[in-house]
């Protein structure tokens, strides 16, 4: 048996999320179908984690075991030619049998993108949450500081979470302002343009990044203060935090492992 | 009567081009339907020019005449709320009755985008032409120099052109390399990443930018030299130039007018 590791990128717009569901159109279904067409094996891929309907991935990681003897350098193109155009394998490697995309993951990074512009950018409409109300970036940046470190994130996770512990560690959480958009002929009127929220942690709870983003937008609007972020962590109550921000602004950016260099 | 000027942005992926066609799904049809829903007037908009099926616009300009007395500052949002999500009005102004989007246009800029990367960027799949063969940018830049100025572009226009004269003036033609793509986990292997070809002129013939882009890619591949661009201008023969590059890489970037400042 061989263990194959894939990095894949997908546009989640047309899918009911990553993970297989009965009678549903998911990224995992499409990937498993492509591997079946290639190898004839009905395999099950392990993803580093789920992504919800409409959520994208720049660098989702999966692995699967196969007895196929196709050389490793052929896998990427062979799978890509059997995938729809909105899912692409970026990289294929052979890894030790002990590797498991979910259990071996050390850190994950998500990106949530807010376009704080007067008019939405038509080319980014499926990848950015358009929010035209001017946002105060400095206050948002202050708010993010409270999230860094080990905390109980019960206030920032869906009530549908089945995890026993809501304690997670956040290593980085910061905003990046995109260089002045080349796109819209768009006077800013005090808006801050395209904002990317990057957040890296040892693991994330169900809807955690989207609840953080929804709460952070309220901070940016002045409906909450930065200090509220700390009070929310202490409260451990989902009902006290902001709304779950829309799925299409979210991208699973990167998953990190301790793997030997190629 | 009032004359309304609109700047609009659209993702051309789902449309049969800009201009109305019988029984066809076009950007102009959608825009006229939206204005009809708003005003009850069956108006005809004048575009600065056509764009083909699959071609996008960042800043297409149209105008139309109406007797509606809706205040000018309401038009943008009122039309947008009646348009599909892949067409957006960026700006609405009232202009003198003499203004005509096509006849008054002074300069137009198009952008053609080539992603010279190993793996395509899934999020840009409808906006960039993916060409994985390494390209020599310096030779391409030299080739573009020959296009600047007034020339007969017969070699670079579709045989279906109905224009009497193929003489046009190109003011600028240059390549811009996008800063190292944030997207793919993609060793470049000598490829140059995302290249934007910007080309500004007093007018463009049918397929002109796409034939220039198709020929320029052959220069980049080493199948032609930069000097061939000059020889092609002299030849005035479409059959001697390169292929028409695929539509989805092309965007009508900007249309310039001599209009009084707002």
Beta-strand content estimate of chain A: 25-35%
Level-2 CATH architecture of the largest domain in chain A: 2-Layer Sandwich
Helicity level of chain A, as a percent range?
Answer: 10-25%
Order of helices and strands of chain A: EHEEHEEEHEEEHHE
Number of alpha- plus pi-helical segments of chain A: 5
**Greatest interface:** A-B, 27 and 27 residues
Radius of gyration of chain A: 19 Å
* Form type of chain A: globular
Largest sheet of chain A: 10 strands, mixed
Overall pLDDT score of chain A: 94
Q: State the CATH topology of the largest domain in chain A.
A: Alpha-Beta Plaits
Low-confidence stretches of chain A: none
What does this structure look like?
2 copies of one chain form a homodimer. With 262 residues, chain A is α+β, with helices and mostly antiparallel strands. Chain A has 2 domains: 2-100, 2-Layer Sandwich (Alpha-Beta Plaits), CATH 3.30.70; 107-255, Pseudouridine synthase I, catalytic domain, C-terminal subdomain (Alpha-Beta Plaits), CATH 3.30.70. Chain A is built from 5 helices and 10 strands. The first copy, chain A, has helices at residues 27-39, 72-80, 137-145, 208-221, 227-235; strands spanning 2-10, 46-47, 56-66, 87-95, 107-116, 129-130, 149-152, 167-177, 193-201, 250-256. In chain A, strands 1, 2, 3, 4, 5, 6, 7, 8, 9 and 10 form a 10-stranded mixed sheet that branches. The longest helix of chain A is centred in the last third of the chain and has 14 residues, at 208-221. The radius of gyration of chain A is 19 Å and the shape is globular.
């Amino acid at each position: 048996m061989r263990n194959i590791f894939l990095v894949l990128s997908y546009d989640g717009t047309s899918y009911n999320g990553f993970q297989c569901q009965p009678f549903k159109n998911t990224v995992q279904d499409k990937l498993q179908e492509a591997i079946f067409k290639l190898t004839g094996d009905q395999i099950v891929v392990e993803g580093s984690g789920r992504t919800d309907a409409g959520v994208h991935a720049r660098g989702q990681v999966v692995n699967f075991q196969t007895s196929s003897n196709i050389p490793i350098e052929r896998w990427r193109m062979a799978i890509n030619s059997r995938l729809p155009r909105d899912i692409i394998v970026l990289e294929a490697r052979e890894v030790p049998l002990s590797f498991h995309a979910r259990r071996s993951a050390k850190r994950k990074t998500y990106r949530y993108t807010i376009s704080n512009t007067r008019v939405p950018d038509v080319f980014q409409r499926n990848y950015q949450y358009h929010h035209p109300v001017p946002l105060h970036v400095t206050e948002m940046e202050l708010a993010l500081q409270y999230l860094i470190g080990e905390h109980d994130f019960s206030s920032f996770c869906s009530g549908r979470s089945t995890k026993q512990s809501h304690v997670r560690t956040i290593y980085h959480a910061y905003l990046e302002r995109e260089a002045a958009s080349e796109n819209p002929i768009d006077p800013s009127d005090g808006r801050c343009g395209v904002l990317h929220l990057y957040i890296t942690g040892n693991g994330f709870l169900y809807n955690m990044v989207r609840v953080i983003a929804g709460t952070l937008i309220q901070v940016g609007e002045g409906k909450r203060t930065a200090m509220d972020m700390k009070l929310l962590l202490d409260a451990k109550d989902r009902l006290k935090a902001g709304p779950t921000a829309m799925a299409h602004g979210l991208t699973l950016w990167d998953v990190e492992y301790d793997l030997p260099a190629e």
